[in-house]
Amino acid sequence: MRYINSILIVFLTFLLIQGCGKKEQQSDSQVPADEQKTEIQSSGEQTETNQASLETKQGLPEDFPKDIPLPEKIKKTKYIDNNTNKIVILDADIPVSEAINYYKENMKKNGFDLNKNDSLIDTDKIYNADWRKGNRNVNIAITSQNNITTVVISY
Fold this sequence. Notes:
single chain; 8-stranded antiparallel sheet; globular
């Protein structure tokens, strides 16, 4: 049962992260009042706009840790910074099994220890693991969709 719950959590996280990049406008009834703002256009007319609480930015964060490995064949990189932790999303042009082996090998090489707990999922199609180095925790989630391998790094 824990295995199924872990897979569900990874899948929902993946869908949430993928959805954060879309700029679909919601109706005012779906956006909390503290996330709405009024803008005045050059015509003097006031309009209501929605401001997302999490913004997806392209590239890597400026302070991305050098000891977290990155595969060579990255196609697209974006990240979310929520002031508590960062989530980096990489789309790589490598098979999911190769990405999984890459992170297993290189996280160890860079001094991280695998935290074997209930969140560890390790199959040939999906991977989710917590790594620890000193007082730092890094979560690596890897999956594939439409022949693109997606790596999600939370730190």
